[in-house]
Amino acid sequence: MKTINVGSERALEIIKAPQISEKATFLAEKVRQIIFYVSHDANKTEIKSAIEQIWKSQNIEVKSVQIINVKGKKKRFGRYIGQKSDWKKAFVSLKDDREIDFTDVRLFEDK
């Protein structure tokens, strides 16, 4: 994967939130993969550099990124049928058995 520089504002736009579910915690414990909700226009290299940018104080290095586009489900609202939005999620593998501390995010450090 190529390395590109992503600014701190763009990094926060790319990585929306970690996915917290039973399957996500199982993958985090067994396979050391973390699942994130990401922006629709983000690609693998942007996601990798955004994660390394956000958690650079913890010296996080990303080994690989897999992306899945999830289609929105059709839901019924009374007589009408609507559809939830499509979204994208990323499975991120970390190097060297590292773990991300989600409470320690320092993007804008005083210089």
Automatic annotation (TrEMBL):
A biological-process GO annotation: translation
Outline the subunit composition. Answer: Part of the 50S ribosomal subunit. Contacts protein L29, and trigger factor when it is bound to the ribosome.
What domain of life does the UniProt record list for this protein's source? Bacteria
Alphabetically sorted, this entry's keywords are: Ribonucleoprotein, Ribosomal protein, RNA-binding, rRNA-binding
Q: What does this protein do?
A: One of the early assembly proteins it binds 23S rRNA. One of the proteins that surrounds the polypeptide exit tunnel on the outside of the ribosome. Forms the main docking site for trigger factor binding to the ribosome.
Q: Which NCBIfam families does the record cross-reference, listed alphabetically? A: PRK05738.1-3, PRK05738.2-4
Gene Ontology molecular-function annotations? rRNA binding; structural constituent of ribosome
Q: What is this protein called?
A: Large ribosomal subunit protein uL23
Q: Check the record and name the InterPro entries matching this protein.
A: Nucleotide-bd_a/b_plait_sf (IPR012677), Ribosomal_uL23-like (IPR013025), Ribosomal_uL23/eL15/eS24_sf (IPR012678)
Q: Which Pfam families match?
A: Ribosomal_L23
UniProt lineage? Bacteria, Pseudomonadati, Pseudomonadota, Betaproteobacteria, Nitrosomonadales
Looking at the UniProt record for this protein, which Gene Ontology cellular component terms does it annotate, in alphabetical order?
ribonucleoprotein complex; ribosome
**Member of which family?**
Belongs to the universal ribosomal protein uL23 family.
